[in-house]
Amino acid sequence: MLDRRLNAYRPDLAEKSLEGQVDALRFIDGKPARVTASVTAMRPRPDAASGIDTELLYGEPVSVLDRADGWAWVKSGIDAYVGYVEETALGAGGAAPTHWVTSPRTFVYRDPDMKTPAVLALSMGSRITVTGEAETRGTRYLLTDAGAVIAKHVTNVDAPLSDDHVAVAARFLQSPYLWGGRSGFGLDCSGLVQLSMMMSGKAVLRDTDMQRASIGTEIGRGDLQRGDLVFWKGHVAIMTDGETMIHASGFTMDVSHEGLDDAIRRIEPMYGLPLVYRRPS
Predict the structure, then answer these.
(1) Domains of the chain: which residue ranges?
(2) Rounded distance, CA 281 to CA 278, Å?
(3) Which of 112, 114, 210, 252 has its CA 20 to 30 A from that of 12?
């Protein structure tokens, strides 16, 4: 059976590319749109009371397969994740983004002046379309349809922030843990891995089991070095060296450092020993 997290199909409707692979009454191509909310939750059902599978960031592209009762059924253009988002979080495809946010968090101001009201708060990885620039009291701003953003908080879209995903992950230290989160406002363990690697030029899938099956090559524990990944059932951490890791921890409820040996002892009674160690390619 195809993974419903990565393949859009229901009994009544499915994406055109799945014709002949699944049963559905209709097969369609999705319509392009972009996220216009700061961050929007993606859920497995069109119900605000249901759990959050993941999040989409401002400016990220989606393919919209259905709209009904205030909800849109979409497929992410970033990692192919499928789910429901509130329809108000989406806008027309519009011009392609030119820049993305490289600061963990930043504000978009009404005017190119930090003393004017902030109209949006954006996470690292958010995509914006720059239409001009301005300078106020020595601070340079980039102008967008949404407002003005501090120029040093963004760079050309898809230009890696760093070639070291560990250094990117460390920028989120003490950021709160959020189940399903993948933004600077809150992250879960696989969200931290995905966002830090995305900002380092490496596209990876969203959930822990997907990452465990697809990232890099398996190594032994004795070979661990900076940047390697440790996978438990339902959890992943990034090694900062051979003995210490950084992870979005549901134990401390934030992004924190922890010794690998300490983590193994703490986690084993609940979830067992690590399943695999992997080195990203």
Answers:
(1) 13-92, 99-156, 165-279
(2) 9
(3) 210
